[in-house]
Amino acid sequence: MLARPIYVLDGARTPFLKSKNRPGPFAASDLATQAGRALLSRQPFAPDELDEVILGCAAPSVDEVNIGRVAALRMGCGQKVPAWTVMRNCASGMQAIDSGVNNILAGRASLVLAGGVDALSRAPLLYGDKMVLWFSDMAAARSTGQRLALFSRIPVASLLKPVIGIMKGLTDPMVGLLMGQTAENVAHRFGITRAQMDEFSVRSHERVIRAQDQGTLAAGGGEVEALYDAKGNVYTLDDGVRRDASVQNLAKLRPFFDRKYGNVTPGNSSQITDGAAWLILTTEEVVRKNNLEPLGRIVDSEWAGLDPAHMGLGPVHAATPILKRNKLALNDVDYWEINEAFAAQVLGCLAAWKDEKYCREELGLDKALGALDENRLNVDGGAIALGHPVGASGARIVLHLLKALKRNKARRGIASICIGGGLGGAMLLEAA
Fold first, then answer.
1. Is 245 exposed, middle or buried (0-12, 13-18, 19+ CB in 10 A)?
2. Catalytic residue among 57, 77, 90, 349
3. Full-model pTM
4. Could you confirm whether 388 is annotated as catalytic?
């Protein structure tokens, strides 16, 4: 448990914009800057009064090195506010928050802007070694004859088939599996069916649609801030949600990661998406001194490791120690956010908590924790409908959970996320 609660004053995110098989309208730093400016503009302090800025990002562009500093300067935080970038794959945004919490607890800061961002639609196409070596030889050629000779030996197959950066990034280097293949492993382990995955996915879309229609997930609803591009276009909604989502429609999609035996499809997986999210962290002393009204507080956090081939079960391994420390049962928690990397992965987490053998052998418990009431879980939908901009998702679920607690006058919630590489992260939050 934290030595003392850390308060979240406020937060904001961009709409999450689905990749359309081409670079999206915003670079990652554009997303972070626009969301951050909107958030900071409504605060009772100036941006240069922050003690530090921490930004999670899993796939920064080569021209946005230390993207946290780039965004901080563009947001008007000034040259004297230190800013840095963290990377913990899918939980980079949550790691940024946790890093801010720890710096506040250590007395090094009292006002921190922390969040996450990724523009996955802009993930690069990469050349393999053969093509890179050819370019190197071309650069070293001294004469026209040498260059012509090299042109006659150009590796055409390598030139026309670059490595897709996003696929490379979503492949675990230790077990050699795409993240979707690890979801297939979880589904097989707990006997999760295609129908269950598709039903869960439809519910995610339905809940996001309801939240958008009610204004909760629309620009101006307190969480999402509009984006503006150079052409005058305005983006106000998460655009990956499908209003025509149905089990019948999803059943038409073919498995993507295991085409012969699998059940994980693009329809029951999270989307490739661009987005950013920020939260402002501070101490109880700052809240009282300035008569502020915080959004909520962070009271505990946990990081866990597990088999990378079953990385989707990370939320179980991270959230369970929090429950034990705080003497809570699953349904003592009013609301849960478990990031929907894959329907199979979230359903696998629910199954693991109900499985006595898993709880005993993998979690060190005496018995199964039981069934989580799914009416408490992802009440406004999740990444299957919203998308999963890897660096931002950990911050988004913390922000949204705090908003849900306040809106519904609830007391506590847990935000948890699976992490590529075999990790899990979780935070226990309370309403202010």
1. buried
2. 90
3. 0.95
4. yes
